[in-house]
Amino acid sequence: MIARLAAEVSDAQRARGLRPSPRRGALPLLVSALRHADDLGEGLAARGIR
Questions:
Q1: What is the pTM of this model?
Q2: What is the mean pLDDT of residues 13-17?
Q3: I need a surface site. Which of 4, 10, 24, 25 has the fewest CB within 10 A?
Q4: Quick check: 5 and 36 in contact, CB under 8 A?
């Protein structure tokens, strides 16, 4: 999952004309991972799973 998010961040950087780098991609990767975790938590809560 994290590898897929990292690839998406890298692709987005390339689309913006930037060279992908771990340093430049760390914050967007963190935000994407936290957003995914939040969405997953909401989905589980909606199904009654704590």
A1: 0.80
A2: 95
A3: 4
A4: yes
